Amino acid sequence: MTALLTTILWKWPSARYHVWSNNMLMVKVERFCGNPDSSIAISVLKLYSALALCGHGAMKLLERKELTAKVVQSLGKSHPISVRIEALKLCRHLMRSAKGCSMLTSLNCEAIVQEINHALGGWRSSSCKRIPQDQIPMVIEACRTALMTRWVGPHHSFFWANKIDKILLDILIGNCITKNQTQVLLSSENLLSLVSDNVTSAQPFIWDILGYLAAHCEEDFHPKSKGKPLFLDILISCACLVATDMMQKGITSLPSSVSEIEPVSRAVLLMVFSPCKYVSSQARNNLSDMVKPFGDDYLQFVLSSLKVLATGDVSIVSNSLHSITNLINLASFSTLPEYHNLISENNGVEILSNIIKSCLKSDIRVSRSSIASHLQCCWHDVEEWEGDDIILFYSLRALSQLIGFSNLVYDHTKESSNKHSEAQELISNLQYILSSTFGRGPRWFAAYILSFFGLYGFANKLGRRMEKALYEQELADVELLLMNGQSYTVHGAILAARCPYLLPQRESHIEERKLNGHHNELEIGHHREKLIHRVRMSDRVDSDALFRILEYVYTGFTLVDKHLIKQLKLLSKFCELKHLSALLQKKQLSWGNAGPSFDLTVVLNPAGHPFSDIILEANSSERVTCSFSLCQLSQPHMHSHKIILSSSCDYLRALFQSGMHESFSEIIKVPIGWEALVKLVHWFYSGELPGIYPDCRWNNIDTELQIRELRAYVELCSLAEFWCLEEVGEESLKVIASCLRSDQRASIGIVQFATKLNQWKIVEIGAQEIAPSYSKLRVAGELEDLDEEVIDMLRAECVRNTQKSGHKSV
């Protein structure tokens, strides 16, 4: 039965929801996981793998601790190879995301890594020089599972502790290294032949695993030798040797396939840029020595071929695919100082800048999984740190290493210089990347390159809205006092979210302004001034530097003059603004790092309550527990901050400044339900409106629940018209449209509700979804509650549909 069910799930993926959401069925199936009968155990593991291909299904399986414990046990060497292979596959599917990897490894990280390592290298216990044929499938599957190294976590230290470098090396060249052979192998040309003689199907995975291990290696990591061969050294040499051999062949003959070159070239790239000083120095030294005989010729060949890509001809995919490996290798060469002059003389920076421009103009996107064939069954549906266009990513990666030596940086401020217009165009393109969704990696490198032009930070739409708050004096509640008598009045809510180290930490740092007998506020004319917290700054703090810090805190971006760099390095470090500090010190972000985010939602928690000055009250009778311990309101509400609300909403800004009775009220009654209010406030504080993904869960929930979820977005569309929130209205409309197109069951209910709120765009969208079933619904009497005007729209839409399809109207 489980085998039949697995077949059904592979053929009809939408059926997965009905299996993983059936708790009684899942409990019964779990009893057979780890069954002594291997055929039953395999069948159950295959069923779980089919379920884990659904992201929600994977999370449900991971929540069952007893089940995951049984799966980990199935990895053990006491089980047949066929069972271990299926257990490895299941683990691979469960760890397709960082969250899944974290959840599974939290159970018993060391045991999981040990079993993966044993599956990779257990064949060596029989003194075999090469992997036995019957164990190759398990080794390949273990390689795929070991790609969990792409995620940050404690599993990296366990892989090193279990000698992953020796295991990977043995798979590459065979179990043939002894202490006496080490120097011979390192200096002999036999090393390359040993690599080519072993299991070639495993090599792409080996290179990826090695690259990820290097990318996430600690800065002070060093392999322990104790008189033993340094297997990591040999492994690094192997990667560099294979990569440089392919480089040399590419000059004089047709290059190898991209899927063969890319993994090893990428591994070398990740090693030369590794945060680990030992790994990066070993990789750079090896690369430098190995390319000496042909390095100049190869670089000229690469730069010449990239000129074609730089002309804007990115759409020639066959050319651009090989250009990817050229870009990767150029980025690796950029770490070798002896080639900087050659790259500069051949206009390397200008070529990369033009490729970036071409990528932004082109609709062609080349993702890594589209060229790395070994990943097709592993991680192709997981978002890569590189983004969905690796041509753009590797161009930025190479440029980030070379921009510091370019005349573009030195001449960009001279308007008479020929480089001025080129630099301005590059800056414009980089700023566009920052403000778009190109992936975390491309955005980081764009920011890093911009820092050489004095532009620091990560521009974003919420930061742009908050910029006006920096100059808003009326709602300020914190005053930063400098020793020279200058001061800046700022907002505690924004500092609490973005830079709490600038807030008063002790009572001795706080001075309260109490005038006219008012303890917490000062009334002047029609305005109220809050309690002001005064913070005295050190005499070493420069006023201009402090303002740049504040500008970064409020907007996520700042323009910095060279004479302020030293002061800003100290201030950003003290304030623990780690991403700004990294940019100022020209430190690269580690591979896979999430990067900065501009998010103020933390002040919706108790940390922001001391600065709350307004309450948003929902039009709802639901009982909601308030996190503010002193609050006694029974109506659903959220404690908010006028400065954040007014920066994103001109209507509220005008209301707070109007001097009318409502401007003094501590509560604003918002004419929407609780669910809609929660989404609205999240948009105010994060810049993103929470959405609904029309996936298997959405398509299978009760219709009434669907309607309830979508009603919140209909209410937001209505409020957006009144409060002039165009972006909220547009995003809400997109959510409603995508959900109704995915599942039409809620269309009638939403059309009916939208009619009451005069949301005719939503009514039109709903009518388009209902129209094909108009006749059946009319006969069934399901349209009786709709207004005549809406029924006329449905009838007209039905006629248009029948005319388009060429059928006669009934």
UniProtKB/TrEMBL annotation:
It comes from the Eukaryota. PROSITE patterns: BTB. InterPro entries: ARM-type_fold, ARM_At1g04390, At1g04390-like, BTB/POZ_dom, SKP1/BTB/POZ_sf. Pathway: Protein modification; protein ubiquitination. Residues 476-562, 612-689 form the BTB domain. It holds the Pfam family BTB. This is BTB/POZ domain-containing protein At1g04390 isoform X3. It comes from Ananas comosus (Pineapple). The gene is LOC109720369.
